[in-house]
Design brief:
By secondary structure, this protein is α+β, with helices and mostly antiparallel strands. Helices cover 21% and strands 31% of the residues.
Length: 280
């Protein structure tokens, strides 16, 4: 998000606050990211470039994901933005993740199971059965036709995993820290005051959507999500709140009422908890 993510989110503060949740990065990777992301932002020509987190792999190096966004706008009660996804395996060199847009391709790729390998050149074959022709009366049934095969790359899988995390949970922020400007762009509020109730789920909102019937500047509260999909803990001594997603285990957001700073990150294999709805 242009504005707030650039000014108030700091990788070191985020890792310090979320370390207890298991969100950690090696020091050399962290240092490389802090140097490379500002350069990549300028090269890519985006308004903001945020580290989404790390997708862990089965064998090779893990994938780091960054999300670049042009100015987000609120139009007809919904947030619209032009965005790009980038990946890296060393924190220093970032490459584009090409979008996957076809509905059939998305459905086939989403059906591929198992962890990512960590090798971008890996390919996956998806087979689809072809309906057998109706047998002619009096003749023996023909051999079933060969199934259709489709080849997809690991980077296509990575794109869809990263897109799902960003779309469903990533952009959490304190309520009231942004406003819709006259030109419809969403901007950070410089005079944003610390949250009065940082220990309440109602104090945090999704940037991704606007609740039906509400003004475009009033973003959807996490408290309006399905009950049980978020877990919030608040340390009254440090005045730090940590919000974890139970739908996407590995995603966490923190807010410090003492310093009025916040941050977020994902670290995991890229699987949502599809059984959560049956557990609630």
């Amino acid at each position: 998000m242009a504005g707030s993510s650039e000014v108030y989110e700091n990788l070191s503060l985020t890792l310090d606050a979320l370390g207890a949740t298991g969100l950690v990065l090696p020091l050399e990777i962290k240092s490389a990211i802090e140097l490379s992301l500002p350069l990549k932002k300028m090269q890519a020509g985006v308004a903001s470039l945020s580290l989404v987190g790390k997708i862990t792999t089965s064998a090779g190096p893990d994938y780091l994901i960054a999300h670049g966004v042009s100015d987000a706008k609120a139009i007809s009660g919904k947030v619209h933005e032009e965005s790009r996804l980038f990946y890296s395996q060393d924190g220093a060199t970032w490459s584009d993740l090409e979008p996957v847009t076809g509905d059939e391709d998305i459905a086939r790729i989403s059906g591929i199971s198992g962890w990512l390998s960590g090798t971008p050149a890996t390919t996956y074959t998806v087979e689809e059965p072809v309906p057998a022709p109706e047998p002619v009366e009096g003749e023996e049934a023909a051999e079933p036709p060969e199934p259709l095969t489709f080849e997809y790359t690991e980077l296509q899988r990575l794109y869809l995993i990263a897109f799902s995390i960003i779309d469903e949970v990533f952009y959490v922020q304190p309520k009231g820290c942004t406003v819709v400007a006259a030109d419809t762009t969403i901007r950070f509020v410089p005079s944003f005051s610390p949250l009065a109730y940082p220990d309440k789920l109602e104090s945090y909102v999704h940037l991704k959507a606007v609740a039906p019937g509400q003004k475009s500047s009033e973003l959807v509260s996490l408290a309006e999500d399905v009950r049980g999909t978020w877990a919030l803990t608040f340390d009254s001594f440090t005045r730090v709140a940590v919000v974890r997603s139970l739908l996407w285990p590995g995603y966490a957001f923190y807010y410090s009422a003492a310093t009025n700073t916040w941050g977020k990150m994902y670290s995991g294999p890229g699987y949502s908890n599809s059984d959560l709805v049956f557990m609630l």
